[in-house]
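Ticket #4471: structure export looks truncated?
Reporter: QA, pipeline team
Priority: medium

Steps to reproduce: submit the single chain below to the structure queue and open the exported record.
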Amino acid sequence: MATDFSPGAAAAIRRAAWLPIGPGGTLSIVHALADSIPVDFRDAVAERAMVMLHAAAADVARAIADRGADVKVECAVVLGTPYVEIIRHARATGADLVVIGRHGPRALRDAFLGSTAERVVRKGDVPVLLVNEKAAGPYQRALVAIDLSDASRRVTDLALTLLPDDVRSLRMVHAFHIAFEDWFAANTLDEYRRQHQDLAAANAQTIAAAYTERGIQCELTVSEGDPRIVVLREAVRERCDLMAVGTHARSGMAHALLGSVAEWLVRSSPCDVALARPTRFTFEMP
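Actual output as written to the record:
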């Protein structure tokens, strides 16, 4: 859990208190001090930051204890480039998830590219939860954007880990594009479109069936259109409080790149967004 003490970070901390962390798990709250702080003032700033972290940790610990969970809350102040130190701390602690508030000094909705959050998403090793809404309780209505690749299962698994044990349902959304429509005559175009729809629906149903067998109720929507519009429309219509999407890795590069769909959804989503990481990639620390 990364914090810059902004209102967005405070919302993220409140959300972290509601996450279904397993018994004996640890919630680590970290603040990264920029190394641009003059050396003579670093100790004083670090001391003040630690006081604020301990106060935040105490509030979270009380909230977790109130719901009967057994979770250790710890905090740390680190010095360096924020995104690098957040990733470094996540690796050092073996974190399963990094939680970041979406509205810090730079509003993520308007300036996601180049922000600390964006760099953590691009270069980190573990899934990232970008918190937008103030948490009033655990997640209840999750939407998963699936693209029919192997990543679809990774994204779905991520969404399920963020839901409480008593929520056994989620909405899956797949948007498909019909290519080369102009190549077909009017008398064959309808059949061509129907077969596209049938194939997309069958492939999406195969993914959903794997979770139905595990007792998860999957409400599946398969629709032609721009995936950004289709996914966002469903999230708004269903009043989802969590959206899970995947990011993409480009082979031959040492970092992951956000796909245009994921980036657009991060900018536009009214709810929290969980981003699943590619399975194979490495970011070397500078």
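Status: closed, not a bug. The export was complete when the record was re-opened. Leaving a note from the reviewer for reference: The two ends are 22 Å apart (CA to CA).
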